[in-house]
Every structure is written in structure tokens, then in C-alpha cells.
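Hello,

Our lab assistant flagged a job as stuck in the queue for most of the afternoon. It eventually completed. Since we weren't sure the result was trustworthy after the delay, we are filing this so someone can double-check. Below is the sequence as submitted and the structure that was eventually returned. Let us know if re-running is recommended.
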Amino acid sequence: MTAQVCVLYFAKSAELTGVKEEEIVAVPTPISCRDLWRLLLQRHPRLSVLQDQVVLAVCQQYVAIGDQVVTLADGDEVAVVPPLSGG
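-- returned structure --
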């Protein structure tokens, strides 16, 4: 099964990808957060500089990049949230 999701990029991740949001079709579901991150890296290799600092938010719920499995549905939102800088 696959889902079409909207990926939102914030701060440094938007700079690295050159986009603030994009639709990705045919994302396998369920999918581990690690595999979801790998899928984003395939699309935007420059994101790799954020590898151990970024957090994903799926439908506004933060998830660590690891073995946790998420089930996505068409229209779900995935946000790439890099570490925030500044005060």
C-alpha cells in the first residue's frame, strides 16, 4: 500500500532542498521513520548534513528517526524539523 503525502521543510531543511513543501506520491505505508528519512534523502541528498539532528513530525506528532513505524494516509503531512538556532 502507498500514500501521497505533503512534506514540509522548515529552516535549514528548506534552504538545503530549495523548497518549502512538496507532494510525494507512492510513499510505502506502513513505513519506519528511518526509511521515511532515507526516502527524503534520496530526493534531496543535501539533507544528509542534518542526519543526526533532524526530527520528523507526522500529522503534527514528533517522531524520532528510528525504528518506530508510522502508517500514512493520502493527504498526511510530514514535516522535516531541523534544530532551531538562535535565541
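-- support follow-up --
The delay was a queue issue, not a problem with the job. The result is valid. The mean pLDDT is 94. Helices lie at 11-17, 33-43.
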